[in-house]
Design brief:
Elements lengths: L4 H25 L9 E3 L4 H8 L17 H5 L11 E3 L15 H32 L6
Antiparallel strand pairs: 1-2
Length: 142
């Protein structure tokens, strides 16, 4: 049974937002830990969603570069990229404290606020999609 593409995308985005919330919470918890570097979560791979839906003859129209690990990269300690989301060092930090910690509570709280708005947006999309499905099968309430 093929799932609804929009519901699948909402599910993927909600999982991404939950992981991002966990990482931001860890950043806040470690805001006074010497040497701690703020982390961020990369976004989900939209190309994989397009590919799963068979757009453009099964080939995605949008794609991320595919990175292959060379022996030289592995010798320097690089690890192969994981599918989906990854936790990386936050490239958008504003300052670094003398102890090496670069977590700014104000930045993290702004990210948490945006995260809350993104969760609300996904929840509303989910509710609307379910209401459309109920209407389509004749079980609309109201």
């Amino acid at each position: 049974m093929k799932t609804n593409a929009l519901l699948g995308a909402i599910h993927q985005q909600m999982k991404h937002l939950a992981e991002r919330q966990r990482v931001i919470s860890q950043n806040i918890a470690n805001s006074e830990t010497g040497g701690y570097k703020a982390r961020e979560v990369t976004g989900p791979d939209f190309a994989a969603l397009l590919e799963a839906q068979g757009s453009n003859g099964g080939k995605p129209r949008i794609s991320r570069p595919r990175i292959s690990l060379t022996s030289g990269m592995a010798a320097m300690g690089a690890t192969p990229p994981q599918g989906g989301t990854r936790i990386i060092l936050d490239p958008d930090t504003g300052e670094t404290k003398p102890d090496g910690n670069n977590v700014t509570l104000e930045e993290q709280l702004l990210k948490m606020g945006q995260l809350q708005a993104d969760f609300a947006e996904m929840t509303n999309l989910y509710r609307k999609q379910l209401a459309l499905m109920k209407t389509a099968i004749g079980k609309a309430s109201g």
